[in-house]
User: What shape does this take?
Amino acid sequence: MDILQKIEASMPGFSKGQKAIGNYILEHYDKAAYMTALKLGSTVHVSESTVVRFAIELGFDGYPDLQRSLRELIRARLTSLQRIDITNDRISDDEILEKVIELDIEKMRNTLATIDKNAFNAAVDAVLKAKRIYIMGMRSSSSLAVFMNFYLSLIFDDVRLISSTSRSEMFEQLFRIGPEDIVIGISFPRYSKRIIQGMEFAKEQKAHAIAITDSMDSPLAELADHTLIARSEMESFVDSLVAPLSVINALIVAIGKKKQIEVRDIFNRLEEVWDKFEVYNKFSGQVDPK
Assistant: This one.
């Protein structure tokens, strides 16, 4: 039962003031999630203490606990228009740069504080043992999948990026996945149905699965052998992917450390190729005075 269902089920036993709070949250849960207890109380014409008691009546430790539950709920429910409205309420025009960066830093801290390091280490070992590595990320998460595919393809012989937007083509690319393989699914609210379906198919074929997502309540987490949680919230219509990218970066570095001798040999040979074909611009260290 989510928080909105709890409120609906508890309405008959609420006082008049509590019903006013409950009705407001049911109708405007997207806004209530970012209101202080004082602001919510003044909006529905009750005291701050009534809002706190309302939260406790629902079984929460206090109003901040209720607020966290609301924010978890809206991750998967908000439309792009609702996101824009929330951002306009939370961030003024003259503080966009500072506020967005501060929020990203906060998500990084929360990710570091809550990520399961045992799951992270197990995911590293699972990738190292896999015969084939499949990476899936759709919509905004596709950028994370491309980044991961680029580096893992340098380290491993058989890495496959599932990049098709066609449902049938996605399953065709996953067709040969088996028990010796691993699939890495990347998705954040609102979760991609294609990623969920791809993970389900991979599990039916007995493949191992890693989920990189925002919560253990994510549909990807239910399908994964190892789940890496990275905080990702929405700033306006934009998904913040700073923390997920950092987790993927750490995963690649950890894998590289485990295969240190092979990786050194690979990049030694790559440097020769890059130099031969002038892949990178050579910097002389001298600045043209003109």
Q: What stands out?
A: The first helix runs from residue 3 to 10.
